[in-house]
Each structure stands twice: as C-alpha cells, then as structure tokens.
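We close this part of the discussion by returning to an individual protein. Part of our work consisted of pairing the sequence of a single chain with a tokenised description of its backbone. The amino acid sequence and the backbone structure tokens for this protein are reproduced below.
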Amino acid sequence: MLTDATMLAIAQMVAKGFEFAGIAVIVIGTLIAFAKAGAMVARGLGDGGAAGERDVVPAFRKTLGRSILTGLELLVAADIIRTVAVEPTLQSVLVLGLIVLIRTFLSFSLEVEIDGRWPWQGKRE
C-alpha cells in the first residue's frame, strides 16, 4: 500500500516530468523551426526577396507556434497535477485557475496567429 508521503512524492515527480517535457518541447521545437527555415533559405525558397520571404516566415512561425502550443499544454498539465495532488489549498487552486486562463488565452491567440481562424471555425478551403 502506498503511503500519503509516497503518493505526494510520485505526484511531484510526475509534475516535474511534465514541466521538463513542456520546456523540452518548446526548446526543441524552436530549434526545428530555425533548422527548417535555414533549410528553406538554403534550398532557394527564401530567395527572390519578399516573395521568398513570404514562404519562409509563415513556415517558421507555424512550426514555432505549434511547439509553443504543445509546450504550454504540458506545462498546464504540470500545474494541474501540482495544484490538485501536491498543494490543494484554495489559494493554489485560484492561482491555477488564473494560470490556466492566461495560458488558454495564449493558446487561442497562437492558434489564430498560426491558422488565421478561431479553433472552432471550419478549415478554409
């Protein structure tokens, strides 16, 4: 049988794991976005002045935005685990609510920036 202290330690490790994964996704996604943009420029898709730049910049922003969104989701999961399992006080729940609200706003803003539409709107043809 697991004791309360053991369960708390496991919850803390899981939350730290999600935090690490969220940070890693953002960092690795940023590196991939730069690598993809560099490869596009090297292949000549970025040549031709403004026309080529219109291809590279949106691709870079889309890759970067997706990695940030995924990282934010993992960080929210870590916050939820930590608040519910580790520190279940009214103040921590209120702080969690504010954090989730801010991160949800950021996620929606990034989604609109990446796709040019709200998440609940249908795909453009």
User: Anything to note?
Assistant: The helical segments are 4-42, 50-86, 90-115.
